[in-house]
Amino acid sequence: MKAQNPDNNTIVSTDKIDRKWIDVNIPCSDACPIMTDIPGYIQAIMEEDYKTAYRINRKDNVLPGVLGRVCNRPCEPVCRHGRNGLGDPVSICFLKRSAADYGMESVNPEIQSNGKKVCIIGAGPAGLTAANDLALKGYEVTILEQFEQPGGMLRYGIPQFRLPYDIVAADVKSITDLGVTIKTDVRIKDDGDIEKLKNEYDAVILAGGCMITKQITIPGIDSKGVYLGLDFMNAANREEFDTPVERVVVIGGGFTAADCTRMSYRLGAKKITLVYRRTKDDMYVGDHELEVMESEGIDLMFLASPVHIEVEDGAVTGIRLIHNSIGEDHSIIPIEGSEFSLKADTIIFAIGQTAEEIITGTERSDNENFFVAGDFRCGASTVIEAAADGRRVAGEVHTLLSNSKGTEDVIIISEVKETGRKRDYDFIPLQPMVTTHMRDRLVKNKEVETGYSKEQSVIEARRCYLCHYNFQIDIKRCIYCLACIDVMPVDCIKMAKDVRVTEDGNLEYVETKRWDEVEAITIDNDKCIRCGNCVRACPVDCISISKYKLETVEKR
Questions:
Q1: pLDDT beyond 60 at 363
Q2: Per-residue pLDDT at 251 exceeds 70
Q3: Apex CA 209: angle with CA 204 and CA 214, to 5°?
Q4: Residue 228 bridge partners (DSSP)
Q5: What are 210-244's pLDDT values in tens digits?
Q6: Considering the domain 117-211+355-404, what is its CATH architecture?
Q7: Confidence of residue 476 (pLDDT cuts 50, 70, 90)
Q8: pTM (two decimals)
Q9: Which is the CATH superfamily of the domain at 213-351?
Q10: Do residues 207 and 126 make contact, with C-beta atoms less than 8 angstroms apart?
Q11: 290-319 burial string, b = 16+ CB within 10 Å, else e?
């Protein structure tokens, strides 16, 4: 269904073909768990409108300053600019940070109270996002946080050299500015505490994170010098770790393991080795994190697992490891006779976290006012995944308490004349992130990545293909002069035959070079670089440009 909006000359569509176009042609947004309007905010930066870029981010993912630093970037590997022969992906995450660095401002919406109260347990990404969304709909939201500061893993699990506390505080403040109350040092212990809250509030959301480190059974685990990853990071972040470290071995392949190695460097370790049981390609961290670790002198060892900890007089002296191979079913196979030792005075096991068991179950019955969100429901996840789940659960709460029919995705389509993009932008190289000099990285809490300058952010934004623009040829008006094909800088305009639209919204055709077979001239938006050469060359003005934007609205 499509409906014209007379107020701003746009079309509002729920047509599956238009939704399919969004999913296929804007791969970065499709890969984002919370469907951030990535080309929208990048174009705003390209136009040096940082406030608009921030507002887009603030609406979509709530924590722009945080996610501009610690997002795991699922959007970047699928960026069209990173395909073979096209260069490096656009630095989408760094640009998100630029939007917050230069455009952050108070949201200040007009909110009308609906008289209902919601309690959220946990002030991590899921809880904060749910609180934000519900506050905007008029709910009186109270968050109960067991630690002395809000943020959850953002505050206690991630080091300041990656995510400074003031950045977390600023993003949290933008949520409390909506009227959300956060009560710290409040611990919910069991089902009984939750039952009391269910009676006091119209709805309760359990949104605690995975703050309990998974246990490991290995000979020597209780020796002096052995730590669990999250415990080590918590102690270091709280300035409570005062044990000298010299030779450190970290076991694990995720973000906590990477953070433990880099924190060890800042605590003065001279030799640091990360040991992972699988291959480099299997690690949870991306290439960016691996490059930073290597730049700080951290050794990476793959396909090795711990056997036992070597101990003398109750203290760690090393760790015994065994080499692995990977089976056809991706199982880990220890290689017999391949054991070896690494010397160490500190061993850190960063092998994952789990949620604390404060409730007997996470399922809820229909019409019950208790909900579970984030890591408590899904297990350990990334910041953006937790935020997305917080948004989903906030929608469920609103549906229950407001008798809403739920939400639906709509496509806002507006016609434009120009994209603002030039062919020359294709040849702009990836802008490097400025980092703190190595001699200064021993200052434990000094942020390593210092952010793009405004000039760098504009240059990097120009690299984006602006995939939210849809170029279309009106077949009824086209005179097949091929002027568009003559000026196309890439092979994106085709003579087509056997053109059809499939039931799921895909446009299918067969390319042809024969004039007697041509049914249409079509633009392949997956290859189009949005330069507009074809529009300017067309003598009969049959090529249009439409801007597509996905929005979620309440069903009527």
A1: no
A2: yes
A3: 135
A4: 349
A5: 666 677 889 999 999 999 998 999 899 888 888 99
A6: 3-Layer(bba) Sandwich (3.50)
A7: confident
A8: 0.90
A9: FAD/NAD(P)-binding domain (3.50.50.60)
A10: yes
A11: bebbeebebebebbbbbbebbbeeeebbbb
Structure tokens at 337: 């006779």
Mean pLDDT score, 288-311: 93
List the structure tokens of 132: 């934000």
Q: CA 325 to CA 39: how far, in whole Å?
A: 42
Residues paired with 414 in a beta bridge: 10, 547
117-211+355-404 and 470-554 have identical folds: no
Residue 111: is its pLDDT beyond 70?
Answer: yes
Strand partners, 334: 324
Residue 250 one-letter amino acid: V
3-state secondary structure of 78: coil
d(CA 80, CA 90): 9
Residue 159, token pair as written in the block? 């080091």
Q: Is residue 355 scored above 80 in pLDDT? A: no
Contact 123, 171 (CB under 8 A): no
Beta-strand pair 203-206/346-349: unpaired
DSSP string, 84-139: TTS-SPP-HHHHHHHHHHHH-----------S-EEEEE--SHHHHHHHHHHHHTT-
Distance separating alpha carbons of residues 195 and 200, to the nearest angstrom: 9
Amino acid of residue 184: T
